[in-house]
Amino acid sequence: RAGQALDEQGIAADERVADYRKTEQTSMQTLTVPRGKDYHLVLADGTEVWINAESRLHYPARFTGDTRTVRLEGEAYFKVARDEQHPFVVETAHLKTRVLGTEFNLQSYAGEASSVTLVTGRVAVQTDHSAEQISLMPGQELTLEADGTSPTLQNVDTYARTQWKEGYFYFDRASLEEILHGLGRWYNVDIELDCDPALLDYHLHYVANRHGTLAEALEKLNNLKRVTVVQEGNRIVLK
């Protein structure tokens, strides 16, 4: 478990939270959160990070230099401690998000669309296809295609984007494919998508407790009467 790995490095941690505010180390750390887990991390500057399932965060035990830079693979929610002299920077495969002090959600899973959703404050985002920075205001979201192209800025419901850290699946007008990938990451099951591609583009409103069973989550999905999804061994199959 992530907590055990941190404990072996001499960091006081329980199974859900690690706090780096008192560490004297400066070495780079890598925190890997497996499928079916999430994790709350406090960085040396007081920034809080909620890390979603199947995600990895690279960060220094203590920040030095002009910026506070971390790298994310997967999804995390950041509540950044304000420090105007040292901007906080989150790098992903296709994005570089720069902030002073704010709250935002960042999703960047391999092979899937990326997004930055701003809850409070302001952020400036740079893609790897352009030197131009895109500024976001609260309630706005910047999305990129899986290959890092086609940036799109839109207004969104930030509540829906951040409920995962409160223990809920909350998808509003999300594609069935997006919902199934979310279930697969949390319950550590494979997704069988050998079906009519049009089914995967169904957009649904779906809410479920992440701490319930997979059977309960699938029952809620099937109750929407749009598709039939079943569990076969370690797979979710769309009928």
In short:
With 239 residues, the protein is an alpha+beta fold.
Would you give an account of this structure?
- The chain has about 240 residues and is of the alpha+beta class.
- It has two domains: about 1-160, Jelly Rolls; about 165-239, 3-Layer(bab) Sandwich (Phage tail protein beta-alpha-beta fold).
- Helices cover about 15% and strands about 40% of the residues.
- The chain is built from five helices and 19 strands.
- The protein has helices at about 1-10, 160, 175-185, 195-200, 215-220, and strands spanning about 15-20, 30-35, 40, 50, 55-60, 70-80, 90, 95-100, 105-110, 115-120, 125, 135, 140-145, 150-155, 170-175, 190, 205-210, 230, 235-239.
- A hairpin with a 7-residue loop joins strand 13 (about 140-145) and strand 14 (about 150-155).
- It is globular.
Secondary structure elements and pairings:
Layout: H1 2-8, E1 17-19, E2 28-33, E3 39-42, E4 48-51, E5 55-60, E6 68-79, E7 88-91, E8 95-99, E9 103-108, E10 114-120, E11 123-127, E12 133-136, E13 140-144, E14 152-155, H2 158-162, E15 168-175, H3 176-187, E16 190-192, H4 197-200, E17 203-209, H5 214-222, E18 229-232, E19 235-238
Parallel strand pairs: 1-3, 6-7, 16-19
Antiparallel strand pairs: 2-5, 3-4, 4-6, 5-6, 6-9, 7-8, 8-11, 9-10, 10-13, 11-12, 13-14, 15-17, 18-19
